[in-house]
């Protein structure tokens, strides 16, 4: 029951057909739901904290919540910073005890991205912490990350090779067609698997990361809308595509939107069916159960890390 590094987890996953689930945490119920699911499935798990989560729940609370969940369930987990905006935020998380940090310099020119990523890598490695970086831009919206569809660019395989060689980064998030948020595709879903395979061929020892990988299950979209929500037309990445990506070097798959939808659908249902209810435990409890069920499904049926 400890915070661990992702290094060994990724080594085992790199040439397999499974990946480690990275689930965003924002409050106690989400942390508990993820930990309970990982324990039930005897699976490795990454709990990750975005800029929005740090602002909402505050870093000290999130760290202690995760530590409490590990103590309660007896599991081990990676604590990861998601989309660190600059060196200072990454340094702060390293100093606070995170075991993994992501510096997202994808919005910057190539050379600037390399410069700051190398700075983060040097500091993190000196403290035994691993680093994820990003090359290429994902469209969509997630917390403080806003990228218009026309500005989204896929990762160039040759640049990926140069980037990893010059920065020494431990894992690389790539853009192959996924996007943040609940509205990932307007038409037929498409991921550039040929590009992914090329990247993996050029940097075969570097674990790849898939951001914006929620599948946006329609049953939760429909339930949200049934009980007063307004999320029409939401569409995610088909789970079969996630499974295929895991065969080509993807070792970490980020999931956030699906958790939000599952919890929100559950809470809306309780409050709609029991309008007299005002005890937060009576709707947050079912919301937590919905998180557990969703994470178990991802671990067992999509990422195939049960028992690993």
Task: Describe this protein with a few key phrases.
308 residues, alpha/beta, TIM Barrel, 3-stranded mixed β-sheet
Explain the overall architecture.
The chain has 308 residues and is α/β, with parallel strands linked by helices. The protein is 48% helix and 16% strand. It has 12 helices and 11 strands. It has helices at 7-14, 28-41, 51-57, 59-73, 87-96, 110-126, 157-167, 193-202, 218-226, 239-245, 257-273, 280-303, and strands spanning 20-24, 45-49, 78-84, 100-103, 130-135, 139-142, 145-147, 171-174, 179-180, 208-210, 250-255. It is globular.
Contiguous uncertain segments of 5+ residues: none
How large is the radius of gyration?
18 Å
Helix-strand category: alpha/beta
Q: Helicity range of the residues?
A: 40-55%
How much of the sequence lies in strands comes to 15-25%
- Give the beta-strand count: 11
**CATH superfamily membership:** Aldolase class I
